[in-house]
UniProtKB/TrEMBL annotation:
Full protein name: Molybdenum ABC transporter periplasmic molybdate-binding protein
SUPFAM superfamilies (UniProt xref): Oxidoreductase molybdopterin-binding domain (SSF56524), Periplasmic binding protein-like II (SSF53850)
Highest taxon of source: Bacteria
Gene Ontology biological process terms from the UniProt entry: molybdate ion transport
A molecular function (GO) term: molybdate ion binding
Organism: Fimbriimonas ginsengisoli Gsoil 348
Record keyword Metal-binding present: yes
UniProt keyword list: Metal-binding, Signal
Pfam family, one: SBP_bac_11
Matches recorded under NCBIfam families: modA
Length: 355
């Protein structure tokens, strides 16, 4: 059995000729349904078919020939189990765990109280949220004691195939509590209680997206991935309880050392003109990459973004083209290399490594 594939299909209207098949983790249902409608409205002639299930089930479906143009997974492990276009891979959003509690259940207010829950439902460890749950229980057990962990595990009454099934059992009163994503609690707010998990015990789920090698509509798939990385789509995801991967950070890791931002306080800047991927020439003001610490002794530099995209550029090209690190209005940095293709530019910089 490949598992039951819970699918939501947006049917094409008369005159539409193209179809984009998007496979997405169950936790993305509300967000992707809204985003797909927005994208369809802006692209007449395109119909988006959305299929939602546990990421492991979706990966199995794709592996057995199911038509998928985009695969948005709740974990890298499941996405990387299928053949996909490596250049299309991006991390597009983050999520956290929360404890969903049956509405009206008394006396359960903190993580430590979870040991007193009679009926606890979780996801199967093969499902991304189930794997994150196992890590959380291990960390919480170290914090609260082995007795706490043993008590919690002894009250697990079922392990579900996806996170929505965990949430449904709590919402319907078939379980006292369940461990789900924060985004799922947001979607059911008012129908159940919630307990936040402290950061030192929580897990960060990174959601990657890519184009499967078997995709038939690669052009629309590429543009749809760009769309969910845009600020407007990220806001939709945040409103649905996710954490935007593009939130600015206060430090940038350069050769393993964290440097405080903004960089312009410490390093030489320049105003450059460059042509972007839309073939528009703009002025870019930023810190010269050639002025960064460590660059003078290196032959190349690898720039890594928050979305997992990376590019290696020779130091000679950084100097020749006067590459700059440009700070956007939201505080994120972008590598811009005038004279080189925009595909060498990297958004949402998080790390720079020299060799």
């Amino acid at each position: 059995m490949l598992g039951i594939l819970a699918a939501f299909v947006m049917r094409p209207e008369a005159g539409q000729t193209r179809t984009l098949n998007v496979f997405a983790a169950a936790s993305l249902k509300e967000s992707f349904t809204e985003l797909a409608r927005k994208y369809e409205a802006a692209h007449p002639g395109l119909s988006i078919r959305l299929s939602f299930a546990g990421s492991q089930a979706l990966a199995a479906q794709i592996g057995h020939g199911a038509p998928a143009d985009v695969f948005a997974s709740a974990s890298a492990k499941n996405l990387e189990s299928v053949s996909y276009d490596k250049s299309s891979y991006r991390v597009f959003v983050l999520n956290k765990l929360e404890i969903a509690v049956r509405k009206g259940l008394p006396g359960i207010r903190t993580v430590s109280d979870l040991a007193r829950v009679r009926n606890l439902v979780v996801a199967d460890p093969a499902v991304p949220v189930g794997g994150y749950t196992e890590s959380f229980l291990a960390k919480a057990g170290a914090a609260y004691g082995s007795g706490w962990e043993q008590s919690v595990r002894s009250h697990i009454v079922s392990r579900e195939a996806d996170v929505k099934s965990v949430l449904a059992k709590v919402r319907l009163g078939e379980a006292d509590a369940g461990i789900v994503y924060a985004s799922d609690v947001r979607s059911a707010r008012g129908q159940l209680g919630e307990i936040g998990i402290p950061g030192n015990l929580n897990e960060t789920a990174k959601y990657p997206v890519a184009i499967p090698s078997s995709a038939e509509n690669r052009n629309d798939a590429k543009h749809f991935i760009h769309f969910i990385l845009d600020a407007d789509a990220q806001r939709v995801l945040e409103l649905n309880g996710f954490v935007s991967f593009s939130r600015p950070v206060s430090r940038l890791a350069i050769q393993g050392k964290n440097y405080p931002l903004p960089l312009s306080k410490h390093y030489r800047s320049a105003l450059m003109k460059a042509t972007d991927e839309k073939n528009q020439t703009k002025a870019y003001f930023g810190v010269l990459a050639s002025a960064l610490p460590g660059v003078s002794k290196a032959k190349s530099a690898t720039f890594i973004g928050a979305d997992g995209y990376w590019q290696t550029v020779s130091v000679a090209d950084l100097v020749k083209h006067r590459a700059v690190l440009v700070r956007s209005a939201d505080g994120n940095y972008q590598l811009v290399v005038p004279g080189l293709k925009p595909s060498t530019w990297v958004n949402w910089l998080r790390r720079i490594e020299f060799r």
